[in-house]
Amino acid sequence: MAFKSMIQAARHWLRDEHPQVRRRRMIATGVGVLLVWFVLGGRQGLFALAMSQREKASLREQIAELTVDNAALRTQADAMARDPQACEKTAREQLQLMRPGEIIYRFQ
Hints:
Layout: H1 2-13, H2 21-40, H3 46-82, H4 84-94
């Protein structure tokens, strides 16, 4: 009921017979534009909200990937801590370490 009375008041305020109708219409248009800007644009508008939701989803995907990588690295670290042969194998492959008298061949 209050909404209908607000609409009637706005129509009365903007009717053509009023002497300052142009000025009032300009004010109403400006207020409308500002309202649309604050709802759609701005720091907390709908577009910013949509972009932050996309960023949030992207960050959650990254967290899931990093969690899987972290679990694999923990497993590898535990294996290297318990098994000296696994530690030696990793050192030979990643750091290209060798025992005395060995020769490393690299193919490109």
